[in-house]
Amino acid sequence: MENLQERVFEFNTKLEETMYDVLEKQEPQILNAAHIVKRCTKRLGRIFVVGTGHSSSVAFEAFMRAGGLVNVVPLVPWFLTMIAGGVLSGILEKQKGFGKFLFRAYEFIYRISRNDCMIFISQSGCNAVTVEMAKLAQEAKVEVIVITSSQGASFDNELLRIEGVTAVDTGVPFGDTVVKIDGLDEETSIGPLSTMIGIYVWHVIMISACEMLVEDGYKKLPVIISGNTREETSERRNQKLILGYLRELLKQGLLVKI
User: Fold this and answer.
1) 72-76 contacts, C-beta under 8 A, 24 or more apart
2) For residue 240, what are the domain limits?
3) Which residue would you say has higher pLDDT here, 1 or 34?
4) CATH number, domain at 77?
Protein backbone atom coordinates (compact mmCIF):
# COMPACT_ATOMS: atom_id res chain seq x y z
CA MET A 1 0.00 0.00 0.00
CA GLU A 2 1.58 3.25 -1.18
CA ASN A 3 -1.26 5.71 -0.56
CA LEU A 4 -3.90 6.39 2.06
CA GLN A 5 -6.85 4.18 1.30
CA GLU A 6 -10.55 4.91 1.03
CA ARG A 7 -11.29 3.74 4.57
CA VAL A 8 -8.99 6.41 6.04
CA PHE A 9 -10.99 9.15 4.34
CA GLU A 10 -14.19 7.43 5.42
CA PHE A 11 -12.97 7.63 9.03
CA ASN A 12 -12.13 11.32 8.58
CA THR A 13 -15.62 11.98 7.20
CA LYS A 14 -17.30 10.17 10.11
CA LEU A 15 -15.19 12.15 12.58
CA GLU A 16 -16.08 15.49 10.98
CA GLU A 17 -19.78 14.59 10.73
CA THR A 18 -19.90 13.64 14.41
CA MET A 19 -18.18 16.88 15.42
CA TYR A 20 -20.66 18.99 13.41
CA ASP A 21 -23.62 16.99 14.74
CA VAL A 22 -22.55 17.64 18.34
CA LEU A 23 -22.37 21.40 17.73
CA GLU A 24 -25.70 21.48 15.92
CA LYS A 25 -27.74 19.15 18.13
CA GLN A 26 -26.16 19.82 21.54
CA GLU A 27 -25.69 23.58 21.48
CA PRO A 28 -28.00 24.32 24.46
CA GLN A 29 -26.33 21.64 26.57
CA ILE A 30 -22.84 22.84 25.61
CA LEU A 31 -23.75 26.42 26.52
CA ASN A 32 -25.20 25.25 29.86
CA ALA A 33 -21.96 23.37 30.55
CA ALA A 34 -19.92 26.45 29.65
CA HIS A 35 -21.99 28.57 32.08
CA ILE A 36 -21.25 26.03 34.83
CA VAL A 37 -17.50 26.21 34.12
CA LYS A 38 -17.67 30.00 34.00
CA ARG A 39 -19.49 30.28 37.33
CA CYS A 40 -17.12 27.78 38.94
CA THR A 41 -14.06 29.72 37.74
CA LYS A 42 -15.47 33.04 38.96
CA ARG A 43 -16.01 31.47 42.39
CA LEU A 44 -12.37 30.25 42.38
CA GLY A 45 -13.79 26.74 42.42
CA ARG A 46 -12.16 23.65 40.99
CA ILE A 47 -13.24 21.79 37.87
CA PHE A 48 -12.94 18.12 38.81
CA VAL A 49 -12.80 15.77 35.82
CA VAL A 50 -13.55 12.05 36.08
CA GLY A 51 -13.06 9.34 33.46
CA THR A 52 -12.05 5.67 33.54
CA GLY A 53 -10.41 3.48 30.93
CA HIS A 54 -9.91 5.35 27.67
CA SER A 55 -12.17 8.15 28.94
CA SER A 56 -9.37 9.04 31.37
CA SER A 57 -7.55 10.42 28.30
CA VAL A 58 -10.11 13.22 28.18
CA ALA A 59 -9.59 13.98 31.87
CA PHE A 60 -5.81 14.16 31.39
CA GLU A 61 -6.23 16.32 28.27
CA ALA A 62 -8.04 18.88 30.41
CA PHE A 63 -5.26 19.10 33.03
CA MET A 64 -2.35 21.56 32.83
CA ARG A 65 -2.97 21.93 29.11
CA ALA A 66 -1.75 24.81 26.99
CA GLY A 67 -4.90 26.87 26.50
CA GLY A 68 -6.62 25.25 29.49
CA LEU A 69 -7.81 26.69 32.78
CA VAL A 70 -5.53 26.29 35.79
CA ASN A 71 -8.35 25.18 38.08
CA VAL A 72 -8.85 21.77 36.41
CA VAL A 73 -8.20 18.76 38.66
CA PRO A 74 -8.41 15.20 37.26
CA LEU A 75 -9.80 12.63 39.69
CA VAL A 76 -8.36 9.59 37.94
CA PRO A 77 -6.50 6.99 40.02
CA TRP A 78 -3.94 5.09 37.95
CA PHE A 79 -5.66 1.75 38.47
CA LEU A 80 -8.71 3.02 36.55
CA THR A 81 -6.61 4.05 33.53
CA MET A 82 -5.04 2.01 30.76
CA ILE A 83 -1.73 2.22 32.66
CA ALA A 84 -3.12 -0.56 34.85
CA GLY A 85 -3.93 -2.61 31.76
CA GLY A 86 -7.26 -2.92 30.02
CA VAL A 87 -8.37 -5.99 31.95
CA LEU A 88 -7.82 -4.62 35.48
CA SER A 89 -9.23 -1.15 34.81
CA GLY A 90 -12.17 -2.71 32.96
CA ILE A 91 -13.01 -4.91 35.94
CA LEU A 92 -12.57 -2.20 38.58
CA GLU A 93 -14.67 0.44 36.82
CA LYS A 94 -17.66 -1.90 36.96
CA GLN A 95 -17.41 -2.77 40.67
CA LYS A 96 -20.46 -1.55 42.57
CA GLY A 97 -19.62 0.48 45.67
CA PHE A 98 -16.15 1.43 44.41
CA GLY A 99 -17.33 4.78 43.07
CA LYS A 100 -18.91 5.64 46.42
CA PHE A 101 -15.62 4.88 48.17
CA LEU A 102 -13.63 7.02 45.71
CA PHE A 103 -16.02 9.96 45.94
CA ARG A 104 -15.96 10.01 49.74
CA ALA A 105 -12.16 9.79 49.69
CA TYR A 106 -11.81 12.66 47.19
CA GLU A 107 -14.48 14.66 49.01
CA PHE A 108 -12.37 14.46 52.16
CA ILE A 109 -8.97 15.02 50.49
CA TYR A 110 -10.03 17.95 48.30
CA ARG A 111 -12.87 19.25 50.47
CA ILE A 112 -15.20 19.30 47.48
CA SER A 113 -17.86 21.98 47.87
CA ARG A 114 -20.65 23.76 46.00
CA ASN A 115 -18.06 26.22 44.70
CA ASP A 116 -16.67 23.41 42.55
CA CYS A 117 -18.09 21.57 39.56
CA MET A 118 -17.53 18.04 38.29
CA ILE A 119 -17.33 16.68 34.75
CA PHE A 120 -17.85 12.97 34.07
CA ILE A 121 -16.77 11.39 30.78
CA SER A 122 -18.06 7.96 29.77
CA GLN A 123 -18.88 6.57 26.33
CA SER A 124 -21.28 3.99 27.75
CA GLY A 125 -22.59 5.92 30.75
CA CYS A 126 -23.15 2.66 32.62
CA ASN A 127 -19.91 1.87 34.48
CA ALA A 128 -20.51 1.78 38.23
CA VAL A 129 -17.59 4.00 39.29
CA THR A 130 -18.57 6.94 37.09
CA VAL A 131 -22.31 6.62 37.76
CA GLU A 132 -21.94 6.36 41.54
CA MET A 133 -19.57 9.33 41.73
CA ALA A 134 -21.87 11.46 39.57
CA LYS A 135 -24.90 10.65 41.72
CA LEU A 136 -23.04 11.52 44.93
CA ALA A 137 -21.78 14.77 43.43
CA GLN A 138 -25.35 15.68 42.51
CA GLU A 139 -26.54 14.85 46.03
CA ALA A 140 -23.78 17.08 47.43
CA LYS A 141 -25.22 19.98 45.35
CA VAL A 142 -22.12 20.15 43.16
CA GLU A 143 -22.93 21.18 39.59
CA VAL A 144 -22.44 18.18 37.31
CA ILE A 145 -21.63 17.97 33.60
CA VAL A 146 -21.74 14.65 31.74
CA ILE A 147 -20.09 13.91 28.39
CA THR A 148 -21.47 10.59 27.12
CA SER A 149 -23.30 8.90 24.25
CA SER A 150 -26.94 7.85 24.30
CA GLN A 151 -25.98 5.14 21.77
CA GLY A 152 -22.80 4.04 23.54
CA ALA A 153 -23.73 0.64 24.97
CA SER A 154 -26.32 -2.12 24.95
CA PHE A 155 -27.13 -1.23 28.58
CA ASP A 156 -29.14 1.77 29.74
CA ASN A 157 -27.08 4.95 29.98
CA GLU A 158 -27.46 5.66 33.69
CA LEU A 159 -25.61 8.97 33.54
CA LEU A 160 -28.36 10.38 31.30
CA ARG A 161 -30.98 9.34 33.87
CA ILE A 162 -29.52 11.39 36.74
CA GLU A 163 -31.85 14.33 37.32
CA GLY A 164 -30.44 17.83 37.21
CA VAL A 165 -27.17 17.12 35.38
CA THR A 166 -26.11 18.92 32.22
CA ALA A 167 -25.53 16.12 29.71
CA VAL A 168 -23.80 16.54 26.36
CA ASP A 169 -24.61 13.62 24.05
CA THR A 170 -21.62 13.01 21.76
CA GLY A 171 -23.62 10.86 19.35
CA VAL A 172 -20.77 8.35 19.09
CA PRO A 173 -22.36 5.10 17.86
CA PHE A 174 -22.77 1.79 19.61
CA GLY A 175 -19.44 -0.01 19.84
CA ASP A 176 -17.50 3.25 19.27
CA THR A 177 -15.94 2.18 15.94
CA VAL A 178 -17.12 3.41 12.52
CA VAL A 179 -14.99 1.77 9.82
CA LYS A 180 -15.50 -1.62 8.15
CA ILE A 181 -12.84 -3.13 5.92
CA ASP A 182 -13.83 -5.41 3.08
CA GLY A 183 -12.61 -8.92 3.74
CA LEU A 184 -12.85 -8.72 7.53
CA ASP A 185 -15.50 -10.63 9.42
CA GLU A 186 -18.78 -8.84 10.06
CA GLU A 187 -18.17 -8.38 13.80
CA THR A 188 -14.86 -6.52 13.35
CA SER A 189 -14.78 -2.76 12.85
CA ILE A 190 -12.09 -0.17 13.56
CA GLY A 191 -11.69 3.59 13.92
CA PRO A 192 -13.01 4.53 17.41
CA LEU A 193 -14.41 8.04 17.87
CA SER A 194 -15.21 8.48 21.56
CA THR A 195 -11.85 9.77 22.83
CA MET A 196 -11.42 12.33 20.05
CA ILE A 197 -15.02 13.51 20.26
CA GLY A 198 -14.81 13.68 24.06
CA ILE A 199 -11.70 15.85 23.87
CA TYR A 200 -13.33 18.00 21.19
CA VAL A 201 -16.45 18.56 23.32
CA TRP A 202 -14.28 19.44 26.32
CA HIS A 203 -12.41 22.13 24.37
CA VAL A 204 -15.65 23.51 22.89
CA ILE A 205 -16.99 23.90 26.44
CA MET A 206 -13.73 25.53 27.56
CA ILE A 207 -13.62 27.99 24.66
CA SER A 208 -17.25 28.95 25.26
CA ALA A 209 -16.66 29.42 29.00
CA CYS A 210 -13.64 31.65 28.35
CA GLU A 211 -15.65 33.76 25.90
CA MET A 212 -18.34 34.16 28.57
CA LEU A 213 -15.75 35.27 31.12
CA VAL A 214 -14.45 37.91 28.71
CA GLU A 215 -18.04 39.06 28.10
CA ASP A 216 -18.34 39.46 31.88
CA GLY A 217 -15.42 41.89 31.82
CA TYR A 218 -12.40 39.68 32.50
CA LYS A 219 -9.29 40.99 30.73
CA LYS A 220 -7.04 38.17 31.94
CA LEU A 221 -7.95 34.53 32.39
CA PRO A 222 -6.22 31.83 34.49
CA VAL A 223 -5.09 29.98 31.37
CA ILE A 224 -1.95 27.87 31.05
CA ILE A 225 0.36 28.64 28.10
CA SER A 226 2.75 26.25 26.40
CA GLY A 227 6.02 25.84 28.27
CA ASN A 228 7.85 25.42 24.98
CA THR A 229 7.15 28.77 23.35
CA ARG A 230 8.96 31.45 25.32
CA GLU A 231 11.33 29.28 27.32
CA GLU A 232 11.85 30.81 30.79
CA THR A 233 9.20 33.49 30.29
CA SER A 234 6.38 31.01 29.69
CA GLU A 235 7.53 28.78 32.56
CA ARG A 236 7.62 31.73 34.97
CA ARG A 237 4.17 32.84 33.86
CA ASN A 238 2.70 29.38 34.45
CA GLN A 239 4.45 28.99 37.80
CA LYS A 240 3.16 32.38 38.94
CA LEU A 241 -0.37 31.45 37.84
CA ILE A 242 -0.29 28.07 39.60
CA LEU A 243 1.23 29.42 42.83
CA GLY A 244 -1.28 32.28 42.93
CA TYR A 245 -4.13 29.82 42.55
CA LEU A 246 -2.74 27.54 45.28
CA ARG A 247 -2.47 30.54 47.64
CA GLU A 248 -6.15 31.29 47.06
CA LEU A 249 -7.03 27.68 47.90
CA LEU A 250 -4.96 27.94 51.07
CA LYS A 251 -6.87 31.06 52.09
CA GLN A 252 -10.13 29.19 51.62
CA GLY A 253 -8.85 26.30 53.74
CA LEU A 254 -9.00 23.93 50.76
CA LEU A 255 -5.34 22.94 51.04
CA VAL A 256 -3.50 21.56 54.04
CA LYS A 257 -0.61 23.83 54.97
CA ILE A 258 2.56 21.82 55.66
Assistant:
1) 72/46, 72/47, 73/46, 73/47, 73/48, 73/49, 73/110, 74/48, 74/49, 74/50, 75/48, 75/49, 75/50, 75/102, 75/106, 75/118, 75/133, 76/49, 76/50, 76/51, 76/52
2) 227-258
3) 34
4) 3.40.50.10490
